[in-house]
């Protein structure tokens, strides 16, 4: 079986960066975003400028005020963060449907099927980070590895704006020197217990046998034993009931022929329509994606006034988008059609034609 390539992407100082991006006056300044009331609340996150003063997530707001009296203290605007989050998730889904979001600002992506000799996982990660920056103006960090936990570990290693690969050639070096508190899943309490057991880093953990760890940490002992060896799951828990239905075609050699593209678009529209029909869904947004032979990806989408699901309706929009998107000078390697913003079909969004079939 082919080795999995998993990317973990995590936005840098997410809430604070959104605030700085939305209000340029805040850029370069110590920004601290907190929950509810300033007197009793805790810090949600702090910009990297504020972190220099020792301010961090989950700290009492009053403490943050003491450490950073000149900081700019803001209330969290969750709706805005959700909005940005959904833009980011859309970018992930434009690469692969195997996306497991962990929170508003981070997700695992399985990109195994996109990797080739000329397109290593790292270049895909960089491309995704670039897309996020283009679309939202925000920086993120990514980690690439052969399982989830190592990918997550990697994404935190070179923040902000980092892209880090953990592979068989460097995994031992990284894990053996890793502070025990930096192992994913080792919180404050576990860390203190580890210290009592004279386990301070990955090497110390590696040196303990499995039974010892199970004796002291119960069921988690086994997982800790495995983590010390770089072993972890590579199965993503992703949403099979997707928020979009899409089909794409990759050409074995590059095409640049409108007539053929129109045929392919019609065919893809029909396949999408059949899927929507199966699931009794319809959608309000159509997206066409084109990948050129140099692997640049271009997408264009548009909303429809009514939810659609029939081949002709999807094709009509897709065809229009294709002509807006295409660059006649660059051959096409892949083309795709997606319908999103889905909802269940109801009598409200059916037309007379649906009753004539
Ligand atoms: P994180 O990804 O943990 O932190 P971050 O994005 O602010 O900073 P970085 O990843 O660069 O270290 O969390 C994402 C968001 O979740 C964060 O911006 C605010 C929110 N959050 C809280 O509200 N409380 C918390 O205790 C944590 C850790 C995060
Ligand atoms: Mg983050």
TrEMBL record:
One of its GO terms (cellular component) is cytosol. Its cofactor is Mg(2+). Mg(2+) binds at residues 10, 105. Its EC number is 2.7.7.7. Keywords: Cytoplasm, DNA damage, DNA repair, DNA replication, DNA-binding, DNA-directed DNA polymerase, Magnesium, Metal-binding, Mutator protein, Nucleotidyltransferase, Transferase. It catalyses: DNA(n) + a 2'-deoxyribonucleoside 5'-triphosphate = DNA(n+1) + diphosphate. The record marks 15 as: Substrate discrimination. Residues 6-187 form the UmuC domain. GO terms for molecular function: damaged DNA binding; DNA-directed DNA polymerase activity; magnesium ion binding. Its main location: cytoplasm. SUPFAM superfamilies: DNA/RNA polymerases, Lesion bypass DNA polymerase (Y-family), little finger domain. Binds 2 magnesium ions per subunit. GO terms for biological process: DNA repair; DNA-templated DNA replication; error-prone translesion synthesis; SOS response. It is found in: Cytoplasm. The active site is at 106. Pfam families: IMS (PF00817), IMS_C (PF11799), IMS_HHH (PF11798). Poorly processive, error-prone DNA polymerase involved in untargeted mutagenesis. Copies undamaged DNA at stalled replication forks, which arise in vivo from mismatched or misaligned primer ends. These misaligned primers can be extended by PolIV. Exhibits no 3'-5' exonuclease (proofreading) activity. May be involved in translesional synthesis, in conjunction with the beta clamp from PolIII. Monomer. HAMAP family: DNApol_IV (MF_01113). Belongs to the DNA polymerase type-Y family. This is DNA polymerase IV. It comes from Nosocomiicoccus massiliensis. The gene is dinB.
